[in-house]
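Lab notebook page, bench 4
Experiment: in silico fold of construct C2
Operator: M.H.
Input chain length: 312 residues
Purpose: comparison with the prior construct
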Amino acid sequence: DSRGYTHFRKKGTASFGAALQDPRKLAFAGATLAMGSAAYLYNLETVPVTGRTHLILLSKESETYYGERAYAQLREEHKSEILSSYHPAVRKVERIGRQLIQHLPETFPGKGAAHLSEVEWEFTVITSPQINAFVLPGGKVCVFTGLMQMFPTDNELATVLGHEIAHVVARHSAEKVTNEIFFTMLKIALLVLIDFTSVISATVAIGLELPFSRRCEHEADLLGIQLMSAACYDPRVAPGVYSKLGQAENGQKEISKYLSTHPTGDDRAEKLNEALPSALASEYHGTLLDVFRSHATQFASKPTVTDDEFKN
């Protein structure tokens, strides 16, 4: 111009309007949208019982592979603390876990649980005062003796094991991996606009990641009591289990509601009490032998595994 400045073509609505008039760009955008929509619809799965639809991009084979690698690493790290398969605690976990697994087909029929037929379930008990249990992809369930001491009855342990098995039923691990892809993309997009990494990470965690994790825990609770009921365990015990776990919390329940990966024990107990009528409606799907075993254990005078047996 008259002042010697060179002006480049403006970006924004003008360039966007020009793009709309370019047939090649329109074709590319349309093809991308079509392929993305097709991939999204193809990879949608439905969680049994709750009917929630979720996107899963991780294949069942990859999910199992990563689970087996993590399980092998865990067994190596805790090899001196893993109880023998002949130990009473392990035999108890195996017995209850296998009874629950036996009733998976009729509890969760249909396409949403078709992947369960390929799961190779394994149960490991680790000597530790931790009050914890978890499951790895591919059906690798780990239980700490600290939790078994807190919950010595079969019905209480069935509540915990049913919850862990339910995570595999709902493919929560694969869903988490899928969501992490989108959460990471969102963080990158926000970083372009706001150069404040810690604020963005915290915002995404509190607003998206942690609520997703808590929703999965609630969902596993609901599926778990359906399964334990079908396997002839008493789901009415479940709310008390989580209330008892809640007593071990640090007391800052209002804060932990938003900053924890798990809901508070009281929240879980409340939702389970609401879901009990549905779970009780599916009770006693097992054989007469299952019913006998369940009631015999329920009215036993002492726990199947005692404190002394844990020490052996």
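Observations: The mean pLDDT is 82. Residues 108 and 236 are 20 Å apart (CA to CA).
Next step: discuss at group meeting.
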